[in-house]
Amino acid sequence: MEYRYLGRSGLKITEITYGNWLTHGSQIENDVAASCVHAALDAGISTFDTADAYANGAAEEVLGTALKGQRRESLEVFTKVYWPVGPKGPNDTGLSRKHIMEGINGSLRRLQMDYVDLYQAHRYDHETPLEETIQAFADVVRAGKALYIGVSEWSAQQLRDGQALAKEAGFAIVSNQPQYSALWRVIEAEVVPASKELGISQVVWSPMAQGVLSGKYLPGQPAPEGSRATDEKGGQNTISGFMADDVLTRVQKLRPIADELGLKMSQLAIAWVLANPNVATALVGASRPEQVAENVRASGVKIPAEQMSRIDDALGTSVERDPAKTQSPGTRVA
Ligand code: NDP
User: How far is Cα 138 from Cα 119, in angstroms, rounded to an integer?
Assistant: First the structure.
């Protein structure tokens, strides 16, 4: 397993991170979740990503329990704040000072940890002054509850504004967590160039387009049993945007490219995002330990330029590139 630096910081993280959105505390049983975490550790993954909102806190609890007994210094644990949690009252959401301070305490309690390595703003909050958010993050860092600060799905301008304020407050934003895959490239035009200037890495989610780029969904055929596309607790909804027959048909054209490189399609998809030098890690999910073992073999794989361009030809118009798709909900009304 290879390591990369997180932004301009000195923190090294594994280039494949295990993430537990939709799985822990929801799609899969706790014993399977623990086996997936142990498969990740066995394969050399030391970086783990979760969020307070995943399964309304249950995902952090399951991950914390699965990691119990591991040497804390040998792990990098990431969590997030912003989306509604608990009873979802007016202050149980967003990036106000109140919610950030209460949010970090709740996350640490559920994870059974004294600190997280990376605390991330899960979206941009249009309702809270950015100064208030950044000052609260600075205080979380000074209290030793998080070592580094990151954000998720922020636009290029939001990253610039946030980094300028962070500098004044005495810390740096080290990462942004956007969706990125061969099918979803909206960060390439604006977010990546701004991030390079600002010393910010991308920590990318859904590198396999939620499993679609593994090639297991065939056009015109029912989704395999137990897959995310059959998960009625949430997965079926979130994956639906990629499930059109024309997209699935184009994805099948990647199979010969993967075959000639001696890779599984899942590994090709993960190696594809890691080819972007601004990407520090691919956040990969799994519903079974065997998937983790397969996916980690993408670490260190370099896809030759010829195959990179054939991937573009195969996916053609199915690729989303519009930078305006980097969005956070809501606006402040008063
Ligand atoms: P992926 O694109 O890696 O999809 C993972 C899913 O694909 C698995 O749960 C599994 O689903 C399927 N899969 C995994 N490996 C294989 C394989 N080898 N062959 C076939 N199918 C496979 O990423 P996710 O969408 O899960 O996102 C990863 C992480 O990113 C999350 O856990 C979270 O940490 C983060 N994230 C962050 C967001 C944000 O807003 N910041 C939003 C979403 C995710 P199944 O077996 O059920 O089909």
Answer: 11
CA-to-CA distance for 269 and 251, rounded, in angstroms?
Answer: 10
- Residue 240's CB is within 10 A of a number of other CB atoms, namely 11
User: pLDDT tens for residues 238-256?
Assistant: 999 999 999 999 999 999 9
Catalytic residues: 54
Which residues in the chain show pLDDT less than 50? none
Tell me if 228 CB under 6 Å of ligand 1. yes
3-state secondary structure of 205: strand
Q: How far away, in angstroms, is 105 Cα from ligand 1 center?
A: 27
**pLDDT tens digits for range 196-205:** 999 999 999 9
In a domain, 331, yes or no: no
pLDDT at residue 334, rounded to an integer = 67
Q: Which of 15, 18, 21, when mutated, tests ligand 1's pocket best, judged by the most ligand atoms within 8 Å of its CB? A: 21
96 domain-assigned = yes
Evaluate: CB of 214 within 6 angstroms of ligand 1. yes
Rounded distance between C-alpha atoms, residue 86 and residue 101, angstroms: 15
Tell me whether residue 333 is in a domain.
no
Determine the structural domain holding residue 85 and report its residue range.
3-325
Domain contains 332: no
Count up the domains in the chain and report the number.
1
Question: Of 204, 140, 201, 146, which is closest to residue 174 (Cα–Cα)?
Answer: 201
Q: What is the CATH number of the domain that holds 197?
A: 3.20.20.100
Q: Report the predicted TM-score, pTM, of the whole model to 2 decimal places.
A: 0.97
